[in-house]
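quick one, 342 residues, struct below
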Amino acid sequence: MLRLSRLRERPTRSQSAAGEGSLHAGTSTAISGDPDAETAPTPAPPALPRKREREPTANAAASGTPYAIAFPLQAILRHVLLIAGAAVMLAPFIWMISTASKPQTEIFSSELHLIPHQFALVENLREAFAKANLLRFLVNGVIVTVSIFVLQVMVALPAAYALAKLRFLGRETLFALVLFGILIPPQATAVPVFLLLHKAGLLDSYAALVLPFTISVFGIFLMRQFFKTVPDDLVDAARMDGISEFGIVWRVMLPAAIPAVTAFGIFSVVAHWNDYFWPLIVLNSEHLRTPPLAVAHFRNNEAGTSYGPLMAAAMVIIAPLVIAFLFAQRRFIEGITLTGIK
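---
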């Protein structure tokens, strides 16, 4: 009888699998006060899944090292193409530096070599600065490019802010016109702009070099794309603080757009520093010549076949651009990356 009562009080397998039913059965047995009653076993916790081991690749298995790093063929080809492209891009600069460092006898020698046997860079630079006023031409380039860039930023930032953050009728149409303006080359409007400057009496001056480029549709497009990534909550918070729309542009949006402004500055400075077409049309005075025009004049009138001083002058002319890009390359890449998000 005692054994039958124990079997009746012991929970069944279905009750213990149910979880909650077995717990109630064990509790009722403990309350009954039977010293011989057995409590129901608690269900075991589920087993954690085992971490899947890393499968060795085919190349690693063939080499006998299960976790060796396999370099895909696509990555190798990509790096080979990038290195080849970099070599093609750098070849003219390497040849320019090599020629600027050689004396005249080695330049016209039949033997081809990049490293000069006799280093003559200092002599070629001295001759270039003596025959041409390179320092004056560099100052002209800095005045023109900085003035154009400052005026372009003053126009592009408010226009880009209006196209990105303000809602008004015809906004998308105006943005489409901005994109259409990028397609128009500056040479197409050269004659009307030249006649306008002639009527205004501004030819052969710094104004003739700066004023036609104060509005940059590419700058408006680039700033607008960056402003689209700025949260609207930041603009709304500035409005709640009582800042005007122009105040938001210069006190809120400009500090946030430093990477985009730097990227646009690199494009603007390089384009107008290397501009040869427009200064050749509007300038007559020698003291106003920009760097490319000065190098061409130095080649035609002073250097002739003296390629050592000519290459030294060209190296001096492009050095500010290279230095500026090296200092601003991180901001340049960041600005280009952020402007492509939206």
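DSSP finds 18 helices and no strands in the chain.
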